[in-house]
Amino acid sequence: MDVDEAVLRQGPTEWNQYVRRRKAEGRRADLRDASLSGADLSGTDLSYADLRGAVLTGSYLMSADLRGADLDGADLSEAYLILADLVNSRLVGATLEGADLSGADLTGACLDPSFARSQVISDYLTIWPE
């Protein structure tokens, strides 16, 4: 487990303080291939994070900031992305079966060509990319 993953496991408050310092240094979070199944990441700042190949099955990402995050190949099946900010995120090759995207904002997100809205839970507040 790398340093970024270890700090994230400490909880949103510690993570958000840590990531603010990293951003001030011009560095982005590296969570490639992180194993975060079932983790409570609600309200975390994961904007511009490298989450390629991360396993986030059943994770709680309610109101998480994932703007510009690279989630290529990530497993988000059964994840709770309610009210998550996924603006301009990359989700190519990501697994989203059963994910709850109710109220999520996916404006400008790059979804896998095989993505089907029927795979996920969404509502009238979900904003889809054009």
Structural features, described:
The termini are far apart. The protein has helices at about 5-10, 10-25, and strands at about 90, 110. The longest helix is centred in the first third of the chain and has 13 residues, at about 10-25. The chain has a two-stranded parallel sheet. With about 130 residues, it is low in regular secondary structure. The protein contains two helices and two strands; from the N terminus they run ααββ.
From the spread of the alpha carbons, the general shape counts as globular
Strand order within the widest beta sheet: 1-2
Which parts are unreliable, with pLDDT below 50 for 5 consecutive residues or more?
none
Query: Percentage of helical residues?
Result: 10-25%
* Element string (H = helix, E = strand): HHEE
Number of contiguous helices: 2
Mean pLDDT: 95
Rg: 13 Å
Largest sheet: 2 strands, parallel
Computed structural class? little secondary structure
The percentage of residues in β strands lies in under 5%
End-to-end separation in angstroms reads 37 Å
**Strands, total number:** 2
